[in-house]
């Protein structure tokens, strides 16, 4: 994975292709395995060309891309299209198993093993929601299979060292903050922490390049307008003089206007929001989106005000690995639960992926937003910017630049930056943000009704519950729901 990360490359897309390719090889092998076990004989099947990943084949076997599909079919035919003919091709072409092939082979064997077992719980997704419930169940003595379609654990909080040795967050910057002692105590079983308070500054106009504290505080107002507000009271008086009174808060525009008025709204929020939410106006978004951003009359310039603010000392992935390291938990990465569900058996399923995907989009796709991540490494640069994140509300197609070394405290001669470009969801861009608007409620409610009717499944997490959850909120929800499920299970056992 590390060698795939290059300066300015679109890591999300490279990574996506990488695991799509990996998935295809595993799925192809798996398909043959199922066919064989169903006694249909060793069928001569090939992948349709539209599903064939030429890039992956080229990387894995060194065959030129334009010849890849023909090569795959010819070799497959020569080798009798046996169930593992991908593996045979590799051995014949390269004379050795590539790491990817070794992974595929091990993974196939593991899949055979997990298909053979009846699990107490299967958990689809190894992010905060899935890993938290899995550990909770395993601690209570149950057998748990955690299955994630990505080739790694941690969900969107997954981190890794890039090819320059800088610790980065592959799916965007993740800063841990919470007011919940329970959540902190639970996670502290799997990590120590590094104290870190995130700071964000905003460039209103790149022509002057000046940065201002975000969220808006007294310093922001003094520096932006040349004021000399000395106390919270003076600051509040100023905000009262510019705010637009609003009797009922119906949407995110009402939230902002009723706090800071139209000039600050236009400078800091309107265009950032349009970029992030694909042209949606503040008016179109539910109040809770902009309620995430406070306005302060003091000079506190921290992005979050929570009691506990910190980063896992060895990173998120290390924390997740420890959480899932339990004799009762088996983790299988690189498989989409929905593709293999018919071969698996369990007492109860926890689904943490997108709720509409689980129900095969029968009421249409729910609106989610995605991001394209562009990483850049600057060698021999201690730091690029003064704080962890700088927002660009009014310029560029990206919303913000994050410099990971601020977040992680890593000491390194160079530094790695991340620019986030908001995009629609498509084949290459996974859903990352639920779009919260009154308009979407109807479809969501129909899916929620279906979800409630499925007593054998519990939906937990940001995409499964369609909630704009932070990491700690997901962990909290997962702990609560896992507790409820165990209580119910205990009651049923007692009754029996
Ligand atoms: P996810 O992390 O999305 O995990 C779900 C997992 O399920 C994924 O690994 C996915 O591959 C897997 N999956 C989905 N469908 C299937 C399937 N069919 N079969 C198998 N596996 C499947 N929160 C904070 O507290 N602080 C931050 O600073 C912060 N920054 C963020 C920045 C960005 C850019 C984004 C997008 C989010 C940020 N968050 C932050 C929110 C945080 O990412 C989420 O709250 C948290 O990751 C949600 O955990 P989850 O387990 O619900 O979902
Ligand atoms: N927002 C904005 N300007 C900013 C920061 C945030 O308009 O400088 C709005 C924007 O609509 C964004 C929302 O507030 O989507 C929530 O911001 P947050 O930083 O919480 O977003 P996340 O970190 O979840 O991407």
Number-wise, the strands total 17
- Strand portion, in percent? 15-25%
Q: Compounds present?
A: flavin-adenine dinucleotide, uridine-5'-diphosphate
Mean pLDDT: 86
Distance between the termini: 50 Å
* 3D shape: globular
Strands across the major sheet, in which order?
8-7-13-14-15-12-16
Sheet bearing the most strands, described? 7 strands, mixed
In terms of quaternary structure, the protein is single chain
How many helices? The count is 17
Cα radius of gyration in angstroms: 25 Å
Describe this structure in words.
Helix 1 packs across helix 5 and helix 2 (54-61) packs across helix 3. The chain has helices at 11-37, 54-61, 65-78, 85-94, 99-115, 128-139, 181-188, 218-225, 232-242, 252-276, 287-290, 316-324, 337-340, 355-358, 404-408, 441-453, 471-495; strands spanning 118-124, 144-148, 159-161, 167-169, 176-178, 193-195, 200-203, 211-214, 308-312, 329-333, 345-351, 368-378, 389-391, 400-403, 415-424, 433-434, 457-459. The protein is of the alpha/beta class and 496 residues long. The chain is globular, with a radius of gyration of 25 Å. Among the domains are: 1-107, no CATH class; 155-198 and 307-315 and 368-434; 200-291, no CATH class. The longest helix has 27 residues, at 11-37. Mean pLDDT is 86; it is low at 1-21, 28-48 and 81-85. The strands form 4 sheets. A 7-stranded mixed beta sheet has the order 8-7-13-14-15-12-16, with helices on both faces.
